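Why do we care about 3D structure at all? Because function follows from shape, and shape follows, mostly, from sequence. That is the central idea of this module. The next example makes it concrete: a single protein chain, its amino acid sequence, and then its structure expressed as tokens.
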Amino acid sequence: MTKELSTTPTPTERRRVARTERAARRRDHRAVLRYAEDSTPAQRWTFLAVVSLGLLMIGLDNSILYTALPRLTHVLHASALQSLWIINAYPLILAGLLLGTGTLGDRVGHRRMFITGLAIFGLASLAAAFSPSAWALVAARAFLGFAAAVMMPATLALIRLTFADERERNTAIGIWGSVAVVGAAAGPVLGGFLLEHFYWGSVFLINVPICVIALGLTLLIAPPNVPHPDKRWDFISSLYALFALGGFTMTIKELARGSWTLASVALLVAICGGWVFVRRQNKLADPLLTFDIFRSRIFAGGVAAAAGGMFVLAGAELTTTQKLQLADDWTPLPAGLVVAIAAVCAIPMSVIGGAVLHKVGFLPLISGGFLSLTAGVLLAAWATHTGLQPALYAGMMLVGLGAGSAMSVSSTAIIGAAPLNRTGMAAGVEEVSYEFGTLISVALTGSLLPMFLSAHLPEELRGLGLAIMDSAEHASVAEPAYAQAYVSVLIILGVIAAAFAAYTGWAFHDNPKSGGNGGTHE
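And the structure:
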């Protein structure tokens, strides 16, 4: 066993890591200057479009299945458990690997990581489009998550290498940040459009030409690869994180199914994975994550804003598209347009929030955003109960405005509150927070819906589960039961959103207008 894994890092080891990082920054700076001298503005902004395409695909694949899932479930004869894993395999692998792939990019070069991720993403999309079974699609989705984890940290790193001018770079990063929101907005609509006109595999097949175009342009105009061979990459930590996240996800699923034995096993795996992850981080000279960073309530509040905002937004979007298609007999495109209301309303707030933060502070934007989320999901529940369709649209608007407000400044809180020597770690935590929120939301809401559906069905039909939604014979009973289950899930989302409002209200109770100086708010 090597020294850094058997003992706490010594001051000498930490100084060596710091020297390595300083040398890496100097090499990066020289590479940026050389590329800036040789490249034209057209090349730089064209490459920004290429990088944005990669990030757009990552965002789309998180939400495009919200409208496609009922069709996929029917065609592939997927069970409720398989349907959940078709969606969750992607964010699980993505969230589990994100902390480590950024470090791997530092070691082998971010250009190489981006090219590798694009290639794997294209191949995995082909495999998903022609999957012969539900479990084959789950495996393809896992490879898509792996490719996304390889690509995602490289997109921001390549922007920093491409734009030497600070003003250009800030503009480029602003555009980069809005692309993920656009992906969330476009996913349900694009999925609905493709399913209206093509077969179910088109929701994956559309990625292939994008990958081919992005690969060709990257090879032509991307900045040079800048590897740092001295940078250490710890795959074992990422593996432990995957075990912890996977075990936690399975615990939620199995509890909802009433399988206490499997839930106990999954919880044990999650606890063991988390314990060995923390233990390993404490013994590494250059850890992926140190938990003392969460002592700053501004940092912890920012993480809660990112994860909580995505949790409520993803849960509301997923359950609403399912309800509109399965209980109300809507086609995928109109269902996608309804939930796109939320994502579209989040876009302007994601811009406005950052612009007014210095005037109004974190408290009204983040805590106020969660109050809007609470009101939005409860209004959607009331609209379903009363049958007032315009109230559903208004509820989706409030959900989008609230999520956009809360998440617009979550990055500022996370990065601003982190010590300067841990900005890379903070950036990794930020990216994981969004994916973790989506992962847990899909696991929880996707498990609760069939459980509540069974509870609202007559006792003799409860064994059918979600399969009852395909039965015309039982439609008069199944559709109202599904609507009641949907309302129950929305109420739970509302309670959780209110809890996030209370927690962030405490975290930002003095209403700071910036992240502070390296996490001094404790």
